[in-house]
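Predict the holo structure. Ligand: S-adenosylmethionine.
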Amino acid sequence: MTEPQPGIDTTTPQSPRVWNYWLGGKDNYEVDRQVGDEVIAMTPQLPKLARESRRFLIRAVEYLAGEVGIRQFLDIGTGLPTADNTHQVAQRVAPESKIVYVDNDPVVLAHARALLVGTPQGVTRYLDEDLYAPERILRDAGKTLDLNQPVALMLMGILGHVADWDQAKAIVRELVSGLPSGSYLTTCDSTNVHDTEAMDRAASIYNAAASPRIHLRRPWHFTELVTELGLEAVAPGAVPVTQWGVAEDQLVPRPEPIDEYGVVARKP
Ligand SMILES: C[S@@+](CC[C@H](N)C(=O)[O-])C[C@H]1O[C@@H](n2cnc3c(N)ncnc32)[C@H](O)[C@@H]1O
């Protein structure tokens, strides 16, 4: 991305652009690549972690649209459009799928309008909204989605930006409470389980420069979220994303441990 648009902060690295850089995208600036490279130098698993998180999204959406038959998706923390965004995966399985994306980053907004174009049978909408306003998200998403029918709530790589875990849980609780039985929560975030020191140092480097800050989680955060919200985790539960939705016989040899955990859970 060479031509900064008015109103875009190109001096501070921003989460969606750094993530886009790790995903191999081109929608990032020098400041984003700089901190992105510093983090990679500290923990070389980062680009792999970003790509594996996208593969998890693909498998989860295929499962939800395919096996479960969900036709409505609420994806908060859209990120910059890349290959296989939620709407593309869902509408590949079921072209009539409706997707509402939500993000509060101005660069994401600029790209979303141009790139998030779905199938003629389906609907793809974008809301410029803040995760910290779940009631507004539900109200506006409800103009596109039928909130009396099951919805797949996607929170991919966004809850890690919420410093206070209790606040993160309260936001998800409010979102889930606005959705009917048979809805699903899918979430993933970076952890510091397998490569603790390197991940902690990488997070410090990132947080010293970039916005919003990242807070690494532990597997118990995912299980606690599922339990406290009264959800039912889909097997195999909260696991490194490389292990979710992969047949047991394809896990041989087992994938390298990865510091990105994910879970898919059903609202009973
Ligand atoms: C690490 S990116 C993940 C992008 C995408 N979900 C993925 O998994 O590839 C985090 C995204 O969350 C968005 N985000 C962070 N804080 C937010 C907030 N308070 N409200 C809305 N979006 C937010 C960022 O702008 C960014 O697009």
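The two ends are 44 Å apart (CA to CA). The first strand starts at residue 72 and ends at 76.
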